[in-house]
Design brief:
The structure is a single chain. A hairpin with a 2-residue loop joins β1 and β2. This protein starts with a strand and ends in a 20-residue tail after the last helix. It is globular. α5 packs parallel to α6. The longest helix is centred in the C-terminal third of the chain and has 19 residues. The protein is α/β, with parallel strands linked by helices and about 350 residues long. An eight-stranded parallel beta barrel has the order 3-4-5-6-7-8-9-10, surrounded by seven helices. A two-stranded antiparallel ribbon has the order 1-2. The protein contains 13 helices and ten strands.
Length: about 350
């Protein structure tokens, strides 16, 4: 699997998710089998580049190649400048966000709102490719099937992107109107794959090895991208890789192994965010990790009152040590499909 001149380890990708796919989470997903992981979206608004939030999102210290940064905005020149800015800070691939359905993004005509204005979308794509090409940095595009049921224009936009020099397109199998409700559909992704020669990635509702194989077969996509299903279960990538290679399910991780992965992730997380912000922002990751486990709901309520990194770590370790006494391997309930309580990004 290649994106332009860059060869990837495999065709299992971690989706960009605001507030989730920061550097520590991307690194964890890569360690557990993801061949590629895209950053949280970085704004094209120059006045925000020096903000603490953007500086953290542009921090790739210690991250393995390739480093992919997603940018979002509505102005072609600003998006081109944002591409150059992030390339200067280590980005090896630039991804254009035309898939985010969040109101705070779409009301500014960014994200999936751009799918309603194909000329503007084309201008942005062309400007970003023009900025990245001299630096030999491939550009990719992530989008939805369309704005609404009656306006599924992913095929047209994919052809526009390919003609402009985009190296790969990812399609989430929902319209912007759907948000994250209902079920993803894959016929549109299959139509995009049939319409272009560049790699196409299928995204949406892929939450098990069996679903991954079914989506690959239905769409003929070159790769799959996983978002919400990796929250609290980042080892889903190695589970899928094993199933695709052997046709057999990989047994659930040992409970103490899952603890070790989570503790390692938390150390990286605290290192990026600091004591107070790190403890608070880690709560969602811990909550996802214990969701559905015996005692998980009570532990989450207790953990959400902790404002100290060391105390949070001790609580996590104690929870998993206790669980391991009765469940040497993680119970199957933690392997269930993601529900609406999960963060609404993919």
């Amino acid at each position: 699997m290649r994106i332009g001149h860059i060869t990837l380890a495999n065709r299992l990708f971690a989706a960009p998710m605001a507030g989730v796919t920061d550097r520590p989470f991307r690194m964890l997903c890569k360690r557990l089998g993801a061949g590629y992981a895209v950053s949280e979206m970085v704004t094209s608004r120059k006045e925000l580049w020096n903000s603490l939030k953007t500086s953290r999102r542009a921090d790739h210290t210690g991250e393995s190649d390739p480093i992919s940064v997603q940018i979002a905005g509505t102005d072609a020149a600003m998006m081109a400048e944002a591409a150059a800015y992030n390339i200067d800070r280590g980005a090896q691939i630039i991804d254009i966000n035309m898939g985010c359905p969040a109101k705070k993004v779409c009301t500014k005509w960014a994200g999936s709102a751009l799918m309603q204005d194909e000329p503007l979308a084309a201008a942005i794509i062309e400007a970003v490719v023009a900025a990245a090409a001299p630096r030999k940095v491939p550009v990719t595009l992530k989008m939805r099937t369309g704005w609404c049921q009656a306006e599924r224009n992913a095929v047209r936009l994919a052809r526009i992107a390919e003609a402009a020099g985009v190296a790969m397109v990812t399609v989430h199998g929902r319209t912007r109107e759907q948000g994250y409700g209902g079920r993803a559909e894959y016929d549109t992704i299959a139509a995009v794959k049939a319409a272009v020669a560049i790699p196409v990635v299928a995204n949406g509702d892929i939450d098990s090895p069996q679903k991954a194989r079914a989506v690959l077969e239905a769409t003929k996509a070159d790769a799959i991208m996983i978002g919400r299903a990796a929250q609290g279960r980042p080892w889903i990538f190695r589970e899928i890789a094993h199933y695709l290679a052997t046709g057999e399910e990989l047994e659930a991780p040992a409970t103490l192994q899952a603890k070790a992965w989570l503790v390692e992730h938390l150390h990286d997380h605290y290192g990026l965010y600091g004591e107070l912000a790190g403890t608070r922002s880690a709560r969602k990751h811990i909550g996802w990790a214990v969701r559905g486990l015996p005692g998980g709901q009570a532990f989450r309520a207790e953990m959400n009152r902790i404002d100290d990194c060391a105390a949070q770590l001790r609580a996590v370790e104690a929870f998993f040590d206790c669980l391991a006494d009765t469940h040497p391997r993680l119970p199957a309930t933690n392997r269930a499909a993601n529900d609406d309580s999960l963060a609404q990004q993919a």
